[in-house]
Amino acid sequence: MNDELDRARSAWSNRGQARPPFAHKPGKGQESVWDYPRPPALIDDTREVVVMSGETEVARTCRAVRVLETASPPTFYLPPEDVNQDLLIATSGRSFCEWKGGANYFDVRTPEETVAAAAWTYPDPFPEFAALAGWYAFYPSKVACFVSGERVRAQAGGFYGGWITREIVGPFKGEPGTGGW
User: Fold this and answer.
1) Half-sphere exposure of 66 (CA within 13 A, CB side)
2) What are the pLDDT digits (tens) for 139-177?
3) CATH assignment of 3-169?
């Protein structure tokens, strides 16, 4: 674990929160989403992250930031310099996050396809999340996302953008029966 995640986990456990009994126990080298804090933590991630739409590379970086929030797999945000913004077409879609503020959405348009609302950004997030201003996140349910060569599985539920890899254990918000989380 890196120091930032250890600090976030410590702050969470110091508030008296414990992993619920239904949570899967993480194995060696794994993280439980039930150890993630609320409010969310921003954690730098230097692994290679690649986003593809069809045969076209949309983004590649080793400077991602993971947003870790209780019960959800991490969402990866990529710096705008590492995203081919010529492939992004602003849409009229908007949403609001209680932690980050208002989000804007983008279609991904490549020679092979146009994928509706596959990416989003927070142009003017709340001060606690200012580091994410203008950074892009992608739905792994809509485009192919990879972390260190591993294809990411999408978080269940049409709204959530969490990235599930072998290192993450749940259960995850968005799965059947989790509506009250």
Assistant:
1) 28
2) 999 999 999 999 999 999 877 899 999 999 999 988 887
3) 2.170.150.40
Residue with tokens 């410590």: 10
Q: What is the DSSP string of 41-90?
A: EEEEE-S-EEEEETTEEEEEES-EEEEEETTEEEEEEE-GGGB-GGGEEE
pTM of this structure: 0.89
Each domain of the chain, given as residue ranges in start order, spans: 3-169
**How far is it, in rounded angstroms, from Cα 63 to Cα 148?**
12
pLDDT for the residue 12: 44
> What is the three-class DSSP state of 14?
helix
Nearest CA to 34 out of 71, 67, 73 is that of 71
- Rounded Cα distance between 142 and 128, Å, is 28
CA distance 27 to 107: 37
